[in-house]
Amino acid sequence: AQTVTQSQPEMSVQEAETVTLSCTYDTSESDYYLFWYKQPPSRQMILVIRQEAYKQQNATENRFSVNFQKAAKSFSLKISDSQLGDAAMYFCAYRAEYGNKLVFGAGTILRVKS
Amino acid sequence: EPEVTQTPSHQVTQMGQEVILRCVPISNHLYFYWYRQILGQKVEFLVSFYNNEISEKSEIFDDQFSVERPDGSNFTLKIRSTKLEDSAMYFCASTTELAGGYEQYFGPGTRLTVT
Fold it and tell me: Which of A13, A17, B16, B94 stands 20 to 30 A from A87 (CA)?
């Protein structure tokens, strides 16, 4: 079974600084998708960024980028120029190519200090 | 922008009572999901639904749970006899395709409190 591990329960960053959230996963599949979801205090799940495993190029979305290392099964999220609105729980998630479900990590609470 | 909606936002019920959580997925989506998040814990998959039948379910989704798409728009999760440990946030999600990195769009969640 696929598993997703987020080893940082909590991280802090100063406003305007850069922070990296870690995620590792375990799978025997070769094709899959990886996602980062943001969950603010409202608890709504919001997609931040996605990565296709067959793509070598790391995905970027404005201030958010990933470092995808397929061989190491690592998928970290980098947030540049952190803003107060980035404060939230961040979940890393995996889905197989034709899979139904998302498999989530335990989450990392990100605190942004002004 | 289309969105997934869920009602109610908060449901309080007594142990042993039946509850129905309601979701309206995005209209052209074909795959529907329920996830659960116990407070402070990870989001866990419960069940997926496609073409009017369950396509996958987790070990959490036992005989106390059922899902239904009673009409062309609603997707419901029923818990027959609630337990204290069913207290959680329940998220509905939907998507258009399985192939490709299609996003699962999540609703705002229903907070279920069992007393």
Answer: B94
Distance from C-alpha of A94 to C-alpha of B101, rounded to nearest angstrom: 10
Mean pLDDT score, B83-102: 88
Residue A111: φ, ψ to 5°? -110, 135
**pLDDT tens digits, residue range A3-62?**
999 999 999 999 999 999 999 999 999 899 999 999 998 888 999 999 999 998 999 999
Q: Which two tokens stand for residue A53?
A: 């495993």
Burial of B94 (0-12, 13-18, 19+ CB in 10 A): buried
How many Cβ atoms sit within 10 Å of the Cβ of residue B103?
15
Q: How far apart are CA A22 and CA A88, in angstroms?
A: 15
CA gap A35, B95 in Å, rounded: 15
- Which pLDDT score, from 0 to 100, does residue B100 have? 66
**Looking at beta carbons, which residues of chain A come within 8 Å of B43?**
45, 91, 93, 102, 104
- Statement: residue A111 has pLDDT above 90: yes
For residue A24, the SS3 value is: strand
**CB contacts, 8 Å: B99 with chain A:** 97-98
pLDDT digits 0-9 by tens, B36-62: 999 888 899 999 999 999 999 999 999
Contact between A50 and B101 using a beta-carbon 8 Å cutoff? yes
Omega into B8 within 30° of 0, i.e. cis? yes
- Contact: A105, B42; criterion CB under 8 Å: yes
Residue A114 confidence (pLDDT) above 90:
yes
